[in-house]
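lol ok so funny story. i was supposed to be doing the assay writeup but got distracted and ended up predicting the structure for this chain instead. priorities right. anyway since i did it might as well share w the group, maybe its usefull for someone
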Amino acid sequence: MQHSIDDIRKITLHGKVALSTVAVERVAPVVKDRKVRGLIGKLTRDLWAWQLLEKQAGATLSEQEAMKLPSCVLYRKYTDALLVIPKDERENSVVRSANVLHGFVCWMIDGMERMLNPEKPFVLGADILDAGYSWLVEGMRLATLAAQEPETEYRWQGRAIDKLMRCHAVQGDDYHGSPLTAGFFEDL
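and the output, tada:
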């Protein structure tokens, strides 16, 4: 990755989730297996849909209520499903990228839910306790390896991060930022 983790931290949460989503979406066509490609397609659609959801704040949540929040729904829906291991090296990189970036996104969304609902019980798997920005770096690296033209993908990622830093940087206390769509990345 061309940018430092400190640079990435300056991007809003919605921006980081959008970057993770589009990174997987761009390399998904490499996957030939219809079932796996469909799974990745559902994941990216769900992540784009999350951008537009109203975020619940200020509630004291029971464990059952916490399990209905997006971080847990996304985590439970895709964590085991993304453990498939395609034989083709590039396809395997796509699935591994989707898996790692999915974990990063769940970690980010869980953090946002905790900021909005400080009493939220922890309901994700223990693997998320290890999540961090290194997962974003690794997921982006794997997406680059999976691309038809890795050097072109690497440069595209740099341009995407540059644009996010210009247009979706954290401003004051607005850590979350505004929702993005795939269209944000079209002119890169």
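The chain has a mean pLDDT of 95. The CA atoms of residues 23 and 143 lie 6 Å apart.
back to the writeup now i swear
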